Amino acid sequence: MDRMNHSVVSEFVLLGLTNSWEIQLLLFVLSSMFYVASMMGNSLIMLTVTYDPHLHSPMYFLLANLSLIDLGVSSVTSPKMIYDLFRKHKVISFGGCITQIFFIHIIGGVEMVLLIAMAFDRYVAICKPLRYLTIMNPRMCIFFLGAAWMIGLIHSVVQLAFVVNLPFCGPNVLDSFYCDLPRFIKLSCTDTYQLKFMVTVNSGFISVGSFFILIISYIVIIVTVQKHSSPGSSKALSTLSAHITVVVLFFGPLIFFYTWPSPSTHLDKFLGFFDAVLTPFLNPIIYTFRNQEMKIAMRRICRQLVTNKKIS
Q: Most CB within 10 Å of its CB: which of 49, 189, 244, 289?
C-alpha cells in the first residue's frame, strides 16, 4: 500500500518546552531577545565582510557564509517555537514537519563542511603562511562553499528519501518543540530499526568523525605553532580559540541527538533550545570578541551607517 492508503496523520502535536506559565514567559523573553540579537549580529558580520575591503580574505569569506548559515539556524525553529510558547494547541502539519527536517539537515551539513574549511584555512595560515594566498585562492573558497551546499543537500535528501513515505496511522505527539528525525521516526506504524540505524550512521557517526578530525587538526596546528612560533602564526593562532569554541558548541548537541541511545527528554529539550537559540547568538560574539580587526571594521561600518542616515 502507498502512504495515502494507510497514513491518516496529517499533523503532529508538539508538547513544547514546558507547561509552566512562568517559565514560558521567561523563555519567550529570552528567546525573542536572542533571536533578534542573533539575526542582527550575523547580518552585521555579513554586511561588514561584504563592504569592508580590509576583510576581503578567505577567512572572512568563510566567516560571512557561516553567519548566513546561522541566520538559517535561527529561522528554521525559533520563530515557531516563540509563536507556540503561549499556544495551548501546538501543531505542525505533516508537510511542515518534513520541511523543517529538510532545512535542519541541509543547514547542519553545510555548517559542518564550513567548519572543516575554516579549520583548513587556519592550518594553511599557520603552517604554510608563505603559500596561504596561493592555496586559499578564490577558486578554493568557491570550491569549499559549493562542496558545503552539495554535501548538505545530499545529506538531507538521502535521509528524507527513506522517511517521507513512512506510514503514520496512530500517535502523532512529538515531545519536543520542533521536528527532527529520531522522534519523527518513532511515530511510524512500521518497524524502523534499519531507519534508526541509518540515521545514526548518517548523522551521528558523521558528526563524531568530523568532530574528531577537527580536534586533531587543531592539535596539529597548536603543536606546529609551539615548534615554529612567529608573529604571523601567533596572530593566526589567536583565532583558534574562537574556532574550537564554535566547533564544540555545534557538534556537542549533534553528537548527543544522534548517538545517545536513550536521551533524557529534559536534557534533549535543553540542548535543542541551546542549539536553536543560543548558538546562532553566540557565534558572532565568539568570532568578534577575540578579533580586533573585525571589531574595528564593525565600528567603521556602524559609523558609516549612522553618518549616511543623518545626511539623508
A: 49
